[in-house]
Amino acid sequence: MKPIFVTGGAGFIGSAFVRQILEATSDVKIINFDALTYAGNLENLNDLDAARHQFVKGDICDKDAVLKALPDETDAIFNFAAESHVDRSIASASEFVMTNVLGTQILLDAARAKNVRRFVQISTDEVMGTLPEDDAAFFTENSPIEPNSPYAASKAAAEHFVRAARETFGLDTIVTRCGNNYGQRQFPEKLIPLMISNAMNDEPLPVYGDGRNVRDWIFVEDHARAIWLAYEKGKSGESYNIGARNERQNIEVVQSILDALGKPHSLIKYVDDRLGHDRRYAIDAAKTENELGWKPLTDWETGLQKTIRWYRENQDWVNHIRNGAYRDYYKKLYGMEIAQSR
Ligand code: NAD
Ligand code: TYD
After folding, report:
1. 84 alpha carbon to ligand 1 midpoint, in Å?
2. Are 119 and 175 in contact (CB under 8 A)?
3. Looking at the domain 1-337, which fold is it?
4. Domain-by-domain residue ranges, the chain?
């Protein structure tokens, strides 16, 4: 069995990755290291094969815990662990610096100490800032690093430390930069699951600003496959942009969700814009497609239907979150209460 070390594997994308790799391979054993912050959820992992998946609760900022959990000669570290929500980073940035920057550096040091073969850093298109509303403008791997939110700044800083570990110490590194993910098990603070869960509960759908900001959406399983290919086939030191050429204005996304759930557009509530709100993300994934032989398999209509179906069929999963600390978060950010769910 080939050991790999996945951090943040109890979160949205990490858990989708873990599930996919357990299914698609037979010779890989996963150590899933996750601090179980508000975004980590063991319910995301409860049906996995214990012989090939070992969960370890731990913080990537805790050097001793990382060194204890990471076996010598691990084939790769996949670093998903992060504070991941822009609005939370605007409210308070220091947790983002801790986990996203210091945590990444601690993992890089551990990778060298334990002779890990390859380090895969899961980054984001947001490190490249914002694009104008111009069909010819895309993020490529050569776009300048110009983060605008504290979240994006912390992910950009992490990328710099990954690069430094390679240039200084010769660590074998890969960076992946994906656009906005959607799919099953995404915490309902992000646009799509928040709108689905509010619509299911007949609550207002808060749309920031004029609702015309553009995001480039990708189904989470397509992202997970691209990460695995980048690990298997990527060139050391390179970064790979991942996107499904699926740009949508936020308002269009929100209306599609309401239509799919048979709910009225009158639930939409325009609210104050996010501070420093990036206008448009759009990814040119040609390098990933050409060098890694990857392409997305799930189109937007199918992916959105699948996602909505999952939330409808897993209302307990949503309600466990909505009935907890999330209520305070929601009230603080939106100035609105959400109803207790049954
Ligand atoms: P998420 O918030 O759903 O999950 C993050 C996970 O990391 C949680 O399980 C949490 O418990 C864990 N974690 C947080 N701090 C930790 C710490 N100090 N030590 C150990 N574990 C810790 O996030 P996600 O949406 O699944 O994103 C995963 C990664 O992908 C992040 O690095 C994010 O920057 C990146 N990314 C996300 C998107 C997106 O659209 N969600 C797009 C591109 C890149
Ligand atoms: P989000 O899911 O937070 O991802 P990101 O900011 O990392 O792209 O937000 C996606 C888009 O949706 C972004 O333009 C902000 C907008 N948005 C709203 O309009 N209302 C909301 O309640 C949230 C959470 C996001």
Report:
1. 5
2. no
3. Rossmann fold (3.40.50)
4. 1-337
